Amino acid sequence: MFGRERTRIPDEKRPLRMAFFASSMALVLATGWALWDEGKTRRPWVEYQHQFNRLEQQMVEQALAAAEAKYRSPEVQAKVRELEAALAKAEEAIQGSEYSRLKAELAALDRQQADKAQQIQFIKSELDEQRYRVEHAQFVCQEQEEHKARQAGKDPGAPEVRKAVEACRDATVKGAEYQALAAREKALEQRIRAQEPELAKLETAAEEKQAALKRFSEAATKLRDQLAELRAPITLLQRRLEGIRARSPEVQQVVIGGLAVNEFRQPILTVDRCLTCHLGIDRAGFENAPQPFRTHPNREAFFGKHQVSRFGCTGCHQGQGSALTVLEAHSSHELEEKLQASVREGLRKRIHWERPMFHGEMVQASCQTCHAAQTFVPMAPVLSEGKQLVAQLGCFGCHNLRGFEKAEKVGPSLLRIRSKSDPAWMVRWIQNPRGYLPLTKMPNFHLSEDEAISVAAYLVKNSEPEEPYPTAHQPGSAERGRELVSRVGCLGCHQIKEMESLRKGTTALPTAPPESGSPGEGNEKDKAAGQAAEAKPAAAEGQEPRSPKRTEVKEEAPPAYPGAGEVYVGGPTFGPDLSQVATKANAEWLYRWLKDPKRYRPKTNMPNLRLADQEARDIATYLMTLGHRQERPGLAALLQQEARVKAGEALIRKRGCFGCHEIKGFETAEKIAPDLTDFGVKRVDRLFFGEAVEVRQTWEDFVFWKLKNPQVYQTALAPQIMPNFGLTEEQIKAIRVFLKSQVDVPVPRAFERRLSDMEVAVQEGRRILQKYNCTGCHVIEAKGGDVAAFYEAPQVAPPPLVAGHLQEGEKVQATWLYEWLARPTSLRPWLKVRMPTFPVTIDEATTLSKYFSALAGKGFPYEFVRVEEYSPELVEAGRKLASKDYFDCFSCHVQGSKLPEGPPEGWAPDLSLARRRLRPEWIVKWLRDPQKIQPGAKMPSFFPGGPDDILGGNEEQQIIALRDYIMSLGER
User: What is the pTM of this model?
Assistant: First the structure.
């Protein structure tokens, strides 16, 4: 039996309301989500722009309210009412009868002028017609005669034809018809000349009427402008407010051409969209606004030469300029610390970005890209200090660094170390340099005593014998030696602690504490310091890894290097501290070194003080009282062991001592450390962190701790051979910025900062000043002059060269300065301090001459002084002024072999040298006001107050006369 058949509902009758409702709701939700995602999630910058618009609108509204309040103030309103009343009177005058009369008279004059001009024009037309008839009558003859010649078969240019033409013209001119035409032409010209004065008279009258009418309108216009000026701030702010309200969100994009390169090192176009969010970065008025709307620090200084439209933002700050979200654009560990934990993972995925965004002083690393030619970048002091520290510490001795390919070794030559240093001292020095010199640049290699003996053994064994010297050292007077050291200028480069008490009104120099109590003590303290320096940062159990703090690694006390500046690097710490020199050197070597430093080390920067034999013996005797030798029994036998010599050679090769020192046997040795020319973009996964898991795995943290304590990354299988320089945190950060700038990327010439000839001269001059520590004695660019503290008065100390209004390049002739630098002679023989002979090359002397000339704004090539052009009358007047009857110049000044009376302390420079030495224009400037150029100078001011009986009392002429006389002295 079959069951009841089921009723089937046809598809077209089946209800689909729920399905359609569900799908419609899903579509609505999806559309809503898509719109939200597109408008909010994917475009967070839109909200930033809305926030900025609200911020700017609020600022403008406040400014507008303040402007309106100022406009409504009683003072301004009184001024407005006054101007409006005056304007009403001016407009009433324009509507008055006088203005209407002048306007009517001007119209009548214009009509008369037009009529008269038309009459003249008609006459000129008749005149043009008459001139044509006169000229045509003359040329008819030529046409007729040439036509006759051609019919007769003759050449139209034949002489007889030309004669016939001239005869015809003469007959025509003399004819009655031609004479009538010429008379008519002259009559027309006379009529024109008769009409022109009347026309000029009408034009003058019209101009007068126009000027009178203009005065009416100008008065009203001026008053309207003054009223508009009072409302101008309000009008401008209202327009700005309207622009803000009408502003629509849009991506702000800058296309930069050529600043970046691709994988094939070819310049490419890049896009910066940073201004989409950083809307106030290049606008004044947002200095106190919250980020990202704040104005760029030093906006005018940076954007004055680094326009955003040309350089963009990522050229300096790095990051992804094309991104439009905070995460994608900035991605940095500094940002990671500020964000919530939910987004930190996204940042961690971006730690391998090649160019993450820079923060803080790291931004200065980008300056090197375009400013590589500059030693000192004014707006990048940290980068400049880092570059200076690298040069001072000699990092290029072990590493390849761009810009230091030709740099000289920073350490002294060890080729003749045996004749100079005591072997026992050498062992202690190699083990712990700061135990002897707290401020030394020599780093600590953390060598054991046995290793230090091995290195000393090699150096002693391979030390070259010193050449015989003509004279030998004999004991002198230590007291005279001490006096000479304090007077001849030694303290400008060297420090001697026992002589700090001689400073006049100054305090002793700060010194860093040594690593151990004193040289010669046991090695327990030294070992303890080494163990502390090798300690690694530890993390507390159960805590997240963190960056080690400074106090967690106890290393040697850092040296207090002089701050690296644009000019001043050196002073009394430029040369070695001589406080314990007797511990190190022997008297014979000191004597020879003082007499001729280049004999021992040809490349030395130590100048020759031109000491007499006895002076050198006295100084050597005094220096041998500073410190005591500490003998070490049995050391001589250890140094002669061949095994130790070979071990020392291996240690020197491994540690790279030859990178800073000249060592026999290592003349062609290769650098031992990695190439740093592209270290700035080295990826984190290629850096070796060892077992220092607490050090945050970033490029910045790796470099910081590598410089702070290289042994922090040491493991049993990977010893770290880099020594410890004992740097401060500030020095480490400066070097880190410089290392970050080491990027092997070519820069288009359009972006390079190319120095002018003057800038090159100044920069190279400063480099040479630092090389020879000229600022140790002289004040140059308001820096230096340390040695002056050891003299009773500035007059007996080395003179300043560039300070205030005093400019050596403005004062002396460049050719004389060049010759004098190469071979200095005594200008002030009475002074005990003396200018030594520096081992400057011809190129260096030329560069220094250019440097001083460039600082003073004097060009080069150099000018020559022509003394023969001076007037004999002025020279004679100058001679009288310099005589005893007037200024008595030679009561102080030396004149060749003629010496002044009185003690030498009161003498002044030899004026017979002025002709070749001084610039004439500087003499004039000096005579006008010596105290302005050099405050405290002994030179009195004679002007104003010159005598009335010479050159009619004309003081300017008297000054010129004195100059001419002084410049003439050298030729007598």
Answer: 0.76
